[in-house]
Design brief:
This protein is α/β, with parallel strands linked by helices. It contains twelve helices and ten strands. It has two domains: 173 residues, 3-Layer(aba) Sandwich (Rossmann fold); 96 residues, N-(1-d-carboxylethyl)-l-norvaline Dehydrogenase, domain 2 (Orthogonal Bundle), CATH 1.10.1040.10. Helix 5 links the parallel strand 7 and strand 8.
Length: 318
């Protein structure tokens, strides 16, 4: 971190190694500016402050900055003041159009800075935003907070980022104060792709969990008692992900975890048992349909990772 990145609005100079306050010094710049102080933006700013980084904040509704100022942040009076206050500018806004609306009038101030956009959007949004930022002389990182707001500032929080390798390397220490910050590569669209894919993964796991809770609940099992057993089972499930990813990469699907046909038969049992207990079968019906289609596609004797071939065909089945 450059020598002139100093604690703005507070005594103490930022060290080159950590960018955190210590000793006596001037008040030239903060380490990071946060624009957009909704629920997530507020948590981002709090994490930066807690890690000891001088943090400038701005929001269209100025009152949203009050609590952060009380915690040690520096309030910027305008969006331009927020951008010029720091070499690292983090935005977290409702959508990409809002990002452009707010930063467009002050785009000339972005030159030489790193813009991190943690606004949710599509890969196409990210690509256009990166091109726009480059046109104004800024390095660009697109990103997503994968662990919600509760874990921000803790190591368990996952942030995926993609775009400028130089921008990430330069400000990695600051960004890792948010949690585990993973740089996926130079393509700005990658973070949005991972964001969407991981969202689908989480919902797939949770949908299976909700159905399982309903099923054992019909037998009088308490949800927390089931969850204790289920979470103990999950390391096996995640080990399958790693193993099956290698099989998909190799294009070979040994059936040591059971064939598609065997799993399809087991899924029939799940559907039958669910109906017998008066439960909706939306979740197991989805899985059963996928397995049946994979078998029809010629993967019946393959291991269950062979369903990837049916998914990548892209056919719609209603």
């Amino acid at each position: 971190m450059a020598e002139n990145e100093k604690n703005s609005g507070k005594s103490g100079e930022y060290s080159e190694e950590h960018g955190k306050s210590g000793g006596n010094g001037g008040h030239e710049r903060s380490a990071v500016s946060v624009i957009g102080l909704g629920q997530m933006g507020t948590r981002l700013a709090q994490a930066f402050i807690a890690a000891g980084y001088a943090t400038t904040v701005w929001n269209r509704t100025a009152a949203k900055a009050d609590a952060l100022v009380a915690q040690g942040a520096v309030r910027a009076d305008t969006a331009r003041a927020a951008v010029t206050a720091s070499p690292l500018v983090v935005v977290c806004l409702p959508d990409y159009a809002t990002v452009r609306d707010l930063l467009g009038p002050v785009a000339d101030s972005l030159r030489g800075r790193v813009l991190v956009n943690l606004t949710s959007g599509t890969p196409e949004d990210a690509t256009r935003a990166a091109e726009w930022a480059a046109g104004h002389g800024a390095d660009y990182l697109d990103g997503a907070a994968m662990s919600g707001t509760r874990l921000v500032g803790r190591r368990e929080a996952l942030f995926v980022l993609s775009g400028s390798p130089r921008g990430f390397a330069e400000h990695r220490a600051v960004l890792t104060s948010l949690g585990t910050a993973v740089h996926l590569g130079p393509g700005p669209e990658l973070a949005a792709v991972y964001d969407t894919a991981l969202f689908g993964l989480a919902w797939g796991a949770l949908a299976g969990f909700y159905h399982a809770v309903a099923l054992v609940g019909a037998a009088g099992v308490d949800p927390t008692a089931f969850a204790a057993v289920a979470t103990g089972h999950m390391p096996f499930v995640t080990s399958l992900m790693a193993d099956h990813a290698r099989r998909i990469e190799d294009g070979r699907f040994p059936n040591d975890d059971g064939t598609v046909e065997v799993h399809a038969a087991a899924m029939e049992h799940l559907v039958h048992t669910s109906r017998a207990h008066g439960l909706a079968t939306d979740v197991p019906d989805l899985f059963r349909s996928l397995l049946e289609r994979a078998a029809a596609d010629g993967h019946g004797a393959d291991g269950i990772a062979g369903v990837i071939g049916t998914i990548t065909k892209g056919e719609r089945h209603v």
